[in-house]
Amino acid sequence: MIDAVGLHKVYRLKKRRVTALNGVDLRVEPGEIYGVVGQSGAGKSTLLRTVNLLERPDAGTVRVGGEELTSLRGAGLRTARRRIGMVHQHFALLASRTVAGNVAFPLEVAGVGRTERRARVGELLDLVGLADKARAHPSQLSGGQKQRVGIARALASRPDVLLSDEATSALDPATTDSILALLRRLRDELGLTILLITHEMDVIKRICDSAAIMEAGEFRESGRVLDLIGTPGSLLARSLFPLPDRGGPDTVVVTYPRSYDEPLMSELTRRFDVDVNILGGGVEQVAGQSVGRLIVDLRGARRGPALSYLAEHGLLVEEAGQ
Ligand SMILES: Nc1ncnc2c1ncn2[C@@H]1O[C@H](COP(=O)(O)OP(=O)(O)OP(=O)(O)O)[C@@H](O)[C@H]1O
């Protein structure tokens, strides 16, 4: 659905040049929730703004739904952009307009008639659970409610793609949960494709199917979240499951990249007569699976076969020192 290839962007300031995108390739499949995570200055906002051509890349192409946006300008680009909604961290609502007026705004700009506009605004407010707030003004709403208005407005033109610029960063944890749940429901019900940027690993863990870790204008790694977690040396796995820096020569890191019903650790003790001492780790729900990562001391004459047994069962085993 989104296919961006070879994106480069350099900002030229008075005394220096800042490379915000340095050869980024991004592919987001239809109906996928894709998260780009990185620290401040990594280039996430520039990437997001490049996907809908609010920022024109110096090099590279952007295709959305098969259409090459980088080849469009003017009215053609404006029409193509209607297929892409955008949600902002600080909501960007018009204070003087009611909730309904804010949601109606893009429809007015697009020349949609009054009767159709009213019906559509009603549908959208229902969709985000704010039907009773149509006449309220933004100042009367909580942060979570404001973001729901932002989402309803972004969906007004029935886009296929939603871009989310740190949509939950200004919200408390419980409200963040409810907005993430809403985004997932919208993906499921409307078949939306969602590209979000965030500095919170938790957002990746909670709703993303795929993710990229961005640093200094580049993707350090990218792919399906569960595949990345199961890849040796994965930065994403390390960030999602920080482990204590402990252990010695017998210590391994064991990653479960999907849910397992079998009690593998006790099986290991029984079958191979090894001592298993868990030094740290955790199990979390990621992309609908119970995924875990443990740092374990594993000792005994049959340590080697025990580790092979884990690997044969699809677990990733890495020596802790590596
Ligand atoms: N309009 C601009 N003019 C000059 N430099 C810019 C501009 N926009 C971004 N930059 C610079 O480009 C780099 C990438 O910025 P960008 O905002 O894309 O990163 P980010 O990962 O989204 O960070 P943040 O989370 O802080 O917004 C930074 O060094 C930033 O200072």
Automatic annotation (TrEMBL):
The keyword Transferase does not apply. Coiled coil: none annotated. GO terms for molecular function: ATP binding; ATP hydrolysis activity. Keywords: Amino-acid transport, ATP-binding, Cell membrane, Membrane, Nucleotide-binding, Translocase, Transport. Pfam families: ABC_tran (PF00005), NIL (PF09383). It comes from the Bacteria. Residues 5-241 form the ABC transporter domain. GO terms for biological process: amino acid transport. The keyword Electron transport does not apply. This is D-methionine transport system ATP-binding protein. Gene3D superfamilies: 3.30.70.260, P-loop containing nucleotide triphosphate hydrolases.
